């Protein structure tokens, strides 16, 4: 068992088999470096064209559920379009710096269809944008897992990154 605990905290389930299989493949690879868990909270139904009140209600409910899973001593990185963008090498450096803080857990938060409530991003210690492109939240989870694995490989001088 590793001393590093990582939780991918996400809204909604990995419904498609191919996303679940991809996530499991990276969880297996990451198990050599850290104890990594997928932690999901239910997504809220989103009207086809939500008005601002409905949008806020969905984000608030999902945000409450996410915040309820985050502990005081967690290092939290929220995925958001407004976050920092890094190359894989830069992310590996960031990851190394975060790990040096000795947090109880490292939590990466992936929002649902509408993103994340401002209370979640306000709680975050770091904001990360995977890309200016928009990805399905299921794909974002797999990308986070893959980038964590890549970061460990970069930091350990592994061959995966080459």
TrEMBL record:
The keyword Cell membrane does not apply. Its EC number is 2.1.1.177. It is found in: Cytoplasm. InterPro entries: Alpha/beta_knot_MTases (IPR029028), RlmH-like (IPR003742), tRNA_m1G_MTases_N (IPR029026). Its main location: cytoplasm. It is an enzyme of class 2 (transferase). S-adenosyl-L-methionine binds at residues 79, 111, 130-135. One of its GO terms (cellular component) is cytoplasm. This is Ribosomal RNA large subunit methyltransferase H. It comes from Kyrpidia tusciae (strain DSM 2912 / NBRC 15312 / T2).
